[in-house]
Amino acid sequence: MSERVLKIGFVGAGAINFGRAHLPWDHASRLEQLGGVDVIGIVDLDEKLASSILEKRQASKYGHYYKNCKIFKNYRSLIELRPDAVLIGIPPAYRGSFAEEKDLELQFARAGIHVFVEKPLSVLPPEEFMTYAKAVTDTAKEKNVIVSVGYMFRYHAGILKMKELIKKHGGKVMAFNARYYFAYTKAVNKYWFNEDLSGGPIVEQATHFCDLARFIVSDVDVPSIHTLLLKDSDPGGAGHLAYIPQQYEEDISPERRIPRVTMSHWRFKDGGLGTLMHSVALPGTRYEANIDVQLDGLKLSLIEPYQKDCILRVRSINNEEANKDQDFTFPTDDSYLTELKTFLTAVRTNDPSIIESSYSDAALTYQMTWVIRRAK
Ligand SMILES: NC(=O)c1ccc[n+]([C@@H]2O[C@H](COP(=O)([O-])OP(=O)(O)OC[C@H]3O[C@@H](n4cnc5c(N)ncnc54)[C@H](O)[C@@H]3O)[C@@H](O)[C@H]2O)c1
Known about the structure:
It is built from 12 helices and 14 strands. The chain is α/β, with parallel strands linked by helices. The protein folds into 2 domains: 6-151 and 338-355, NAD(P)-binding Rossmann-like Domain (Rossmann fold, 3-Layer(aba) Sandwich), CATH 3.40.50; 153-333 and 365-373, Dihydrodipicolinate Reductase, domain 2, CATH 3.30.360. It has an 8-stranded mixed beta sheet, with helices on one face.
């Protein structure tokens, strides 16, 4: 039996939904690979950008998926078209809130439209945001709507292998250590440098690794989180950045500029310890990210999960030679594709249980990132 064709709407015609040179993400290209969809609308405040994106897509070999597609400035026009599902990929300052025009998730859910929404969930302080998160979750339940959040690493083959090996080892995680080094000198977005619009580097970027800490190990004992920041205003000058393009921080005072280094540690509810380091220092466009997890007799190092040549290096007491590493690679893995495929399957089968990142769970990651952000 052929799959039901799903009517899809996009909110946001920017990088996450339609791609940009050098960046690995682009939900539209994954949707085209999966097929079985009819893209009926693209919403963006910048209608010119949306029209040029649509023209390119229509002229490609996947043009047939866009033949009925209309451009809108406001998401309410998309609701009127009654898509089966929407992919929301606009900056967090324009969603995740009861404020007028920012309650998109809630409005789509109320209309019975399934939602895939990008991280981070909001820019509101979590005390305010949690009430909104509850409204979205309750509405989704009441309306039988899937709400999935864009924590794609939860579908990454390397992460799933780590979880499998941890389970097989049967031990508790003793230590989790994640490093995220942001390459900041090229192909960056101005709003990433403005905490009010993006939430800052932990809420916006390292959120993936806070989420993985929770996904791989367990929930975090929030009061145990302790964080040190290196700021631009540091008297020693170590926080000064000389290569920010196009004076992206010109209109932001040194005290309000994003932290150059964030070092955080905490205790997991399971008892183990976690650490996170985020830095803004690398040249170019290639970010570096690594995760180490240690159990008694087992070390798992996930090296560069954003890259195709990502490696999971394992050292285990169960190897014949305990000094030897065993490498796993995942050359054909595409976590963005698996994430979207899972979302479309959940929509078709009306089964939220296969979604790895629900709105209510992602709200806990949001809360954790805000505790780190609030460090002085
Ligand atoms: N999961 C990932 O790996 C990943 C990667 C990149 C971005 N993201 C997330 O996706 C979101 C968008 O990021 P981006 O890089 O695509 O940004 P972007 O600046 O490239 O695109 C955002 C688009 O949204 C439009 N927009 C802004 N407010 C709007 C509104 N109220 N209504 C309609 N359109 C509006 C802008 O005109 C712009 O075209 C962010 O939350 C970001 O964190 C996630």
